[in-house]
């Protein structure tokens, strides 16, 4: 019997503001599930409702067959790793970890606490006070304090938000290892798309209290379902286009007078106004006198800027209709990088395109490339 | 080390490099300079009088103000004082102790409510706690005298109840004195409690609930231990002045309720027995110090962050 965590039509309003809007989602048992979104999208509120720290306005939350909607937090078989860690400053590390066990009347806490300290690789820290630990160490203790209770679901509220980049990477690997080891369902809230993609089996991208897209990280990245997702998870070049016809398995598109092709399997909308999208790293650059493959989608343009970033170079080019387009090029080729002012042809394999629905009037005036055209990046 | 850091903070950001030669002495001395006014004050108005009082307590009691006293190191003064007035010392400790406990019981929920639940009413409620201080101690205690008087509404209410005799009285009883002490020293309990409860991180309470602690357990295991500094400060600030108080016993009690403060007051000002008054003052100080030290040790301040 799978003890999946099920949220059904969950809504939460604060005053007149809707934080979570009719959300329904199933978190399979044993999965590493990430709720990804910008601040204010309702992801933390959702987590707090599962923990019992916020009351639902409407809807139900179930764990397997059991309705936990109205249960007080201390009666729920879930534990939380708080963003601020919330370790008890007056208790030493052992007592912090044993806190939950003692509340449930477990007599011999010593062995379990020692096991947990081993799991988070801080075996010698039991007698210290939280204030004597670094941020990363406190984070591990917060994790141990929650995990020792063997909850059915572990809730992680931006647990790595306060750590510096290097430590965060290390803890991401650690968290993933621990999740595999203990096999508990992890519900992870984060605004960091790399973190979500790196760790989670399933990512739910939230926006305005709703889930915009849910799926495996690769599926979401390769085939985003909305302009918001395409630019929240990584970035995308989006061209306002119209569907002009079909040829075989491909859609024929017209954008700004140019013709493009995209597989109809990669289209969320197959008629009328659409967005034609392509990820910057799928695009390659050719000089006008070189021959770009004829079956590739092509955009002519003039380079306006190049940004060297070590592993890759980002080129910005201006299309004939004035829109800026971004191209990532791995720094593997020999020769000088292209200079601003160079005329180039950007081209990509049609199967790398994706097609999204476009509302009337939307995007007709998009001429400016922006890494964050919708203003959603964290 | 601490002193150096403090000095650096007070004179500007530390540069890490050698400071200019002319500045070094000033930096090193500035913590002491900051301590100087307070230290002088204590020396002039606490240490010197204390030494003088200690001297007075050992004068020969045969002397008088007119004839002058001779210093005979009469330690017998202390024995006489204890023999004559030990009930007053005990009574002071008991009344002050009971008043402190009642203050804690009344003050803790009040401070908790103001700190954690009052929201935008917080400032107003704090002003209400302090408001009695705008009237003088004496007037406030006189007001209690009329509240508890035999013709007053409170006594009238109790007399109307069954099991209370018709000549039931509140004024001139130990209860009245303790009532007065509680009322007068309650703010000294509430303010330190408020200060420590106000700093209490609500997320810790959430974390305790998340870790299966019922609200009562959360209070016992998290809220109370974290507010112990406030509890200790509040009980000390209440107990110490209450133990030395004499106004409440004077106005709300009878000689049967007199505390050690009343005895000292009359020894100094009525009987003019300076050596005994001084000896009693030191006995009171010693009693309070012993009680406070054993209390602080028992409460275990090192458990508190």
Please characterize this protein's 3D structure.
The complex is a heterodimer of chains A (378) and B (305). Chain A has 378 residues and is an alpha+beta fold. Chain A has two domains: 5-222, 3-Layer(aba) Sandwich (Rossmann fold), CATH 3.40.50.300; 235-357, Nucleic acid-binding proteins (OB fold (Dihydrolipoamide Acetyltransferase, E2P)). Chain A has eight helices and 20 strands. In chain A, the strands form four sheets. In chain A, strands 6-7-8-3-9-10 form a six-stranded mixed beta sheet, with helices on both faces. In chain A, strands 13-12-11-14-20 form a five-stranded antiparallel beta sheet, with no helix packed on it. A five-stranded antiparallel beta sheet of chain A has the order 15-19-16-17-18, with no helix packed on it. The two termini of chain A are 39 Å apart. By secondary structure, chain B is mainly α. Chain B folds into two domains: 1-57, no CATH class; 73-303, MetI-like (MetI-like fold, Orthogonal Bundle). Helices cover 72% and strands 0% of the residues of chain B. In chain B, helix 8 packs antiparallel against helix 9. The longest helix of chain B has 42 residues, at 76-117. The model of chain B is unreliable at 1-19 (pLDDT under 50). The chains are: A alpha+beta (378), B mainly alpha (305). At the A-B interface, strand 6 and helix 2 of A face helix 8 and helix 9 of B.
């Amino acid at each position: 019997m799978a003890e999946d965590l099920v949220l059904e039509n969950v809504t939460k309003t604060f005053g007149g503001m809707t934080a979570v809007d009719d959300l329904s989602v199933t978190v399979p048992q044993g999965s590493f599930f990430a709720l990804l979104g910008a601040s204010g999208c309702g992801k933390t509120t959702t987590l707090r409702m599962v923990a019992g720290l916020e009351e639902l306005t409407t809807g139900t939350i179930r764990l397997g067959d059991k309705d936990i909607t109205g249960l007080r937090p201390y009666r729920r078989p879930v534990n939380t790793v708080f963003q601020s860690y919330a370790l008890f400053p007056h208790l030493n590390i052992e007592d912090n970890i044993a806190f939950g066990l003692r509340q449930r009347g477990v007599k011999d806490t010593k062995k379990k606490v020692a096991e947990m300290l081993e799991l988070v690789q801080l075996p010698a820290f039991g007698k210290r006070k939280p204030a004597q630990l670094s941020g990363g160490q406190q984070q591990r203790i917060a994790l141990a304090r929650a995990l020792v209770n063997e909850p059915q679901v572990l809730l992680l509220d931006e647990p790595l938000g306060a750590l510096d980049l290097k430590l965060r990477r290390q803890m991401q690997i650690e968290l993933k290892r621990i999740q595999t080891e203990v096999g508990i369902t992890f519900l992870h809230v984060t605004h960091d798309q790399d973190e979500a993609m790196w760790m989670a089996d399933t990512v739910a991208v939230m926006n305005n209290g709703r889930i915009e897209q849910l799926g495996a990280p690769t599926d979401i990245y390769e085939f985003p379902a909305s302009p918001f997702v395409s630019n929240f998870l990584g970035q995308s070049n989006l061209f306002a286009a119209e569907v002009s016809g079909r040829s075989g398995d491909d859609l024929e598109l017209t954008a700004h007078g140019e013709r493009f092709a995209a597989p109809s399997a990669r289209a969320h909308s197959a008629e009328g106004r659409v967005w034609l999208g392509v990820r910057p790293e799928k695009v390659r650059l050719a000089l006008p006198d070189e021959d770009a493959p004829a079956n590739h989608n092509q955009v002519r343009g003039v380079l306006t800027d190049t940004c060297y970033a070590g592993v890759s170079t980002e080129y910005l080019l201006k299309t004939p209709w004035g829109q800026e387009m971004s191209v990532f090029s791995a720094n593997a080729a020999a020769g000088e990088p292209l200079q601003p002012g160079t005329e180039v042809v950007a081209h990509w394999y049609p199967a790398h395109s994706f097609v999204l629905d476009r509302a009337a009037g939307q995007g007709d005036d998009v001429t400016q490339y922006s890494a964050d055209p919708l203003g959603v990046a964290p | 080390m601490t002193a150096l850091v403090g000095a650096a903070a007070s004179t500007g950001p530390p540069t890490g490099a050698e400071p200019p030669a002319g500045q070094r002495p000033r930096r090193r001395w500035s913590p002491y300079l900051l301590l100087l006014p307070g230290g002088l004050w204590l020396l002039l108005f606490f240490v010197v009088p204390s030494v003088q009082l200690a001297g007075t307590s050992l004068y020969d009691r045969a002397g008088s103000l007119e004839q002058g006293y001779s210093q005979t190191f009469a330690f017998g003064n202390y024995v006489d004082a204890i023999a004559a007035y030990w009930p007053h010392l005990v009574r002071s400790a008991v009344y002050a102790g009971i008043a402190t406990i009642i203050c804690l019981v009344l003050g803790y929920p009040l401070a908790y409510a103001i700190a954690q639940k009052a929201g935008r009413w917080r400032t107003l409620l704090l002003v209400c706690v302090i408001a009695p201080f705008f009237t003088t101690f004496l007037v406030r205690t006189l007001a209690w005298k009329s509240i508890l008087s035999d013709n007053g509404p409170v006594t009238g209410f109790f007399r109307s109840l069954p099991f209370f005799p018709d000549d039931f009285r509140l004024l001139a009883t130990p209860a009245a004195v303790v009532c007065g002490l509680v009322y007068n020293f309650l703010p000294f309990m509430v303010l330190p409690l408020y200060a420590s409860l106000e700093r209490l991180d609500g997320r810790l309470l959430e974390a305790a609930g998340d870790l299966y602690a019922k609200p009562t357990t959360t209070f016992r295991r998290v809220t109370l231990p974290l507010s112990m500094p406030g509890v200790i400060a509040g009980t000390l600030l209440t107990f110490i002045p209450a133990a030395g108080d004499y106004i409440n016993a004077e106005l709300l009690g009878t000689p049967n309720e007199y505390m050690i403060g009343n005895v000292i007051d009359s020894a100094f000002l009525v009987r003019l027995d300076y050596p005994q008054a001084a000896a009693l003052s030191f006995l009171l100080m010693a009693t309070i110090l012993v009680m406070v030290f054993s209390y602080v040790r028992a409460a275990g301040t090192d458990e508190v962050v």
